[in-house]
Amino acid sequence: MEAASLFETPRPLKALRALGFLLFLATLGLVFYLGARGALEAANALAEAGWDRAVGRPGARGLEFATACMLNVATSCGSELNRLWAARLNYDLLRLVLILGFVGGLAPFVYSPARPRKLPGQGRWATERDLEPYLNPKGVGWYGQLGKRPLRVSEGQRVAHTLVVGKPGHGKTSGYYLPNLLLDAKDGWTAIVYDLKYPDREGLMEAMTYYAHHGRAVYPFTPWGERSYRINFLEGAEDITQAKLIAEIFVPRNPKVPDSKEFYPGLERTLLQALIHAEGVEGRYSLAHVYRVLGDGVAGLKAYVEVRPYLQVELKTLLEMRQDQLAGILNGARNRLSIWLDPGLAAATEPGPMEVPWAKVFSEPSLVYIGVPQELIGDNASGYVLLKLLKRIVDLKTLQHANRNGGRLKVPVSVYWDEFPNFGFLPGIKENLGTMRSRRVAYHIAVQNTDQGRAVYGEEWEAIEGTFAQRVYFLSGLSDNDAARLSEVLGETSVMQEVRGVSRRGLLPIPTSRTVGEREVARPLLSPEEMRTAPKGEAVVLLEGHLGTMRDLDWGVYPYVTSSTTLAGGACAGAGVPPNRITRIVGVVKAYTTAVGSGPLPTEERGEVGERLRELGAEYGATTGRPRRCGWFDGVAARFAARLNGCTEIALMKLDVLDAFDRIRVCVAYELDGRLLFTVPPTPVLERVRPVYEDLQGWRTSTSGVARYADLPQAARAFVRRIQELCGVPVTLIGTGARREHTIHTPGGIG
User: Fold this and answer.
1) How many Å is the Cα radius of gyration of the chain?
2) Beta-strand pair 149-150/145-146
């Protein structure tokens, strides 16, 4: 059935109005009848009293007499008739008839049916009452303040990471980093700070003062300053896998170029891997020593390898090359380590006294301050290498100490990455952020603008950006593109717009009247123009969630799950939102099923159907490019998710992907040992079930870009209606393409 217009009168009301109109007509008829009957009775009474002869119509009765009486002006017959008529009327009966008839007849016309109503724009700013959950003194971090009270979140929300956006000089350090570091020191969090503006004492170096003030340990890694602690950059290099990872930092792999075409970079990587491995095996862990070995030339390298049989195996291909070729490879590899000519850096990156005590860092609140001079960053490849080596060690130590403590660190850790794009391309960063979240590590990543992230990561940046639970935008420091994106995300609000009008008449354009009025209109909650004039340090904070129900820690397909809750209720615990403040929960489902990673997926199609769904829906991992597992719509899992989340409505996405199929299958139950299951069982049972399908007719017509439900093919509407029945929740939104306008809105669901 086609969706009716909101202005259309419901059929029951149409019937009531028809009955009301008939009642109104009947009332008028009854009133006329009662009045006429009284008039005729009065006329007959006057005629019998002799007034018929007085008006010259002896023997006349009824209407004949009444007409003659009213037209006779020579006598007072008309007045007598009116008096007697008035006396004979039953006024109580007339009033009752009029009241019942008019009220009953007009009521259906006065009644206006309830219709869905919304203001033109729904966006609004948080009120003081909205912010009350964030004023909990047990919260952590700093996301602004209300009066003198800081706005804080739960630990679980904070370790879901924060993205900070804004140009230099617009408040990222003073408005976000320093307040958070101050509270980290006070609350007992460990902080690891990457300061790429060292030695700017008015910047992140302030963190050392905060931690010292609260009696916390401070471990500065400042090879270009005084009294720097050491960080062993080659720790773990005795493991050939770690040696390989380190070599790939110096000579990054190009994912777009096959290894067979990376001949010389590949040989440089192999050479560095072998020499770094030797440093670990022999316990020196010195990149400066590797630099010296490369500087000894071909003869020196061969002499070095000759006494180390394991290197002869690793470098066999290299050593068989022509001497001039090998010399070129040695020079190329040596140039990549040229920064280790600096004696301060060489000493600070080797084992020795004053090495950062990582065991204390991850068990007691403390600060690791990493200061890197700005001149090493930018186009300098040495800066990228230095930062990536530091990240490797911090990640390695974090995971080591978390694993020793059952997978979670004893003390929560904040990692502050200033100017994140300067780290260069970090393979697997999205997965890395997810892994660290479960270890109690909160990343605070700053960019001048999100286009920097796109320049480094390309299309993968959208997926990376989507992993941050909090996003902080410093308004006056946003680029034009970021301001436009943020304005679109915030949506529109309702405002009163003044409307002025002028009327003109005649040949001359002379105004004859002016009008002034107001109307409600939708306007951006925050326009890019308003952002440009915002006070320095003023920011917008966004809270978001991610991952689907079947990856929930408690209710998902354990153990193939994430580390936290993904249900709608997680917004309450994670963001400090009271449950009674959530009035609308939209469940988002695709018109087919997809999954990433391992675990049971009953409706998965491993053949041609799965491939077609994957290609048509572009179902590939945004970060890794890994193909997603695809299959037909799973109504059992969808109903299970809708119930768990308390969904009030469903958004059905990617309907257009199914345009190419003659037959569309929908799973309506699971079969296990001859029994039907209508809910999701525990994982060991789910791995054994078989889907029970209901086949629906395909439509073989393009629905891409369709924006009206009535314009969908009949078969597509039947599919949507069946999805609504299976989920048990109204489908109020249907996606038919990648653009925002490719959306069908069906308020109240499908009839």
Assistant:
1) 40
2) antiparallel
pLDDT of residue 254: 72
Residue 280 reports pLDDT greater than 50: yes
Q: Please write down the HEC assignment for all residues of 679-716.
A: CCCCHHHHCCCEEEEEEEECCCCCCCCCCCHHHCCHHH
Tell me the residue type at 721: R
Tokens of 384: 């990228």
Residue type, 102: F
**DSSP-assigned letters across all residues of 488-527:** HHH-EEEEEEEEEEEEE-SSS--EEEEEEEEEEEEEESS-
How many angstroms separate the CA atoms of 257 and 631, rounded? 32
The residue among 434 and 683 whose pLDDT is bigger is 683
The rounded Cα 413 to chain-centroid distance in angstroms is: 25
Are 551 and 533 contacting, i.e. CB atoms less than 8 angstroms apart? no
pTM of the model: 0.65
Per 3-state DSSP, what percentage of the chain is helix, strand, and coil (rounded to 5)? Answer: 45, 20, 35
SS3 assignment, position 437: helix
- Element (H or E) spanning 417, and its range? strand 413-417
For residues 308-331, give the mean pLDDT. Answer: 90
Tally of residues, the chain: 751
Q: At what angle do helices 480-490 and 450-457 cross, to 10 degrees?
A: 110
Q: What is the bridge-based pairing of β-strands 190-198 and 413-417?
A: parallel
Per the structure block, which two tokens stand in for 725? Answer: 């029945």
Query: Whole-angstrom Cα distance, residue 98 to residue 32?
Result: 11
The answer to whether 736 and 655 are in contact (CB under 8 A) is yes
Token readout for 326 is: 């090998």
| Residue range 595-607: mean pLDDT, rounded | 89
